[in-house]
Amino acid sequence: MRTLAWLLPGLALLAASCSAPKLEVGHISSYAYPVPPEVTFDLRRGEPLTPEQMATELASVRLVFLGEHHTDPRSHAFERDMIARLADTRRPLRVALEMFPPAVDPVLDEWRQGKLDELTFLERSKWYEHWGFPWADYRDLFLLLRERHVPTYGVNATREERRAVHLDKPDELPAEVRALLGDLDATVTPHEAYMLDTLREVGHGGDLAPDSDTFRRFYRVQRMWDRLMGVRTARLAEAQPADGITVLLVGSGHLAYRLGANLQAAREATLPQLTVWDALVAPEELDAQGRYPVAVGMADWVRIYVSGEEPTDVPTLAGLSLKADPKGLRVSAVHAFNAPELKALHADDVIVALNGTKPRSPAALRLAYEGVPFGKPAHFTVLRAGKRIEVALTPLRSSGF
Questions:
Q1: Which of 264, 282, 306 is a domain's end point?
Q2: What are the CB-based long-range contacts (under 8 Å, 24+) for 57-60?
Q3: Mean pLDDT of 299-314
Q4: Among residues 150, 255, 327, 356, which is most buried (max CB within 10 A)?
Q5: Helix or strand or coil: residue 159?
Q6: What pLDDT is stored for residue 396 in this prediction?
Q7: How far apart are CA 278 and CA 68, in angstroms?
Q8: What is each CA distance from 41 to 30, 278, 280, 304, in whole angstroms?
């Protein structure tokens, strides 16, 4: 993953290689099942699920929290399989999306009705502004949603709303959002501990203290995401017929230990719900039998994916801030913290063309760059300080999340 997500998809659990290793995760002590990779494992039964068992359990559920690893194709393939299975049941089905706020719903509806091509959908939905992860990672999923005519809804906050909460300026929030949020400083102690451990695990927490201003700002935004997504998804489910089912597609970090969006939904509505959590782990984290320990209380179902020698990411210009310019696309900022190749472009460069083609929009440029092979140069025609120059930018595979 090229961009630093505010919440990372999984927390590495430390455990010995035995049948039920004791885990110490911050302030949370639990026990774990050794889970084999790429199977759907029921943490309540302590065994893998057959397709028949999955269907039986889903038949009595109204609300599914379907966790994903944003940049792994295996995670998205499982999402597509789940959506297809549920669509096949003919139950009224709705899908809620972490990547969009509700304002995008009319565009999502036009996409479902087949009124928009892919680039127009990306432009009008502001995919890269709201989400930032490559469209290539999600394309097949959105094609399935359109093919099956599944109503979809955005349930997250806007950038402006996140900024207002980060800066502790609630008066800048819309009244509807303020009413939903309540007290964001009312701590759920194990959730706060999990978030601190997650940050420290990936090297971004350092000596972060629970009462530090930096962490409090981060945590308020995290609580905002979970609260809005959980409550809005629960209300979508409540509005369904009694045999309906609603699925939230969301990063698994928002579901861990049932302390995130799923907890907020449970507080809003008493509907039968199911949480599916997944994680990407390194081969060395597996036990001698090739299994990975997952705490019993993590979720209802879990899926584990092992990172391989070949990364699964795609080229992305997520580190560039772009805005329209009469002569092309102006680079307003370059953030190359985990994509050093972006340093070939400078702030105030105006991108005129990529591989000889003038992009019609920032979304068009980003989408075109996703198709550039790793290790092969992409040729940008750039206006720099009034001079027209050629800049070769070679996409490199990410070493980060």
A1: 306
A2: 57/274, 58/85, 58/86, 58/89, 58/245, 58/274, 59/89, 60/272
A3: 82
A4: 255
A5: helix
A6: 82
A7: 6
A8: 17, 10, 15, 9
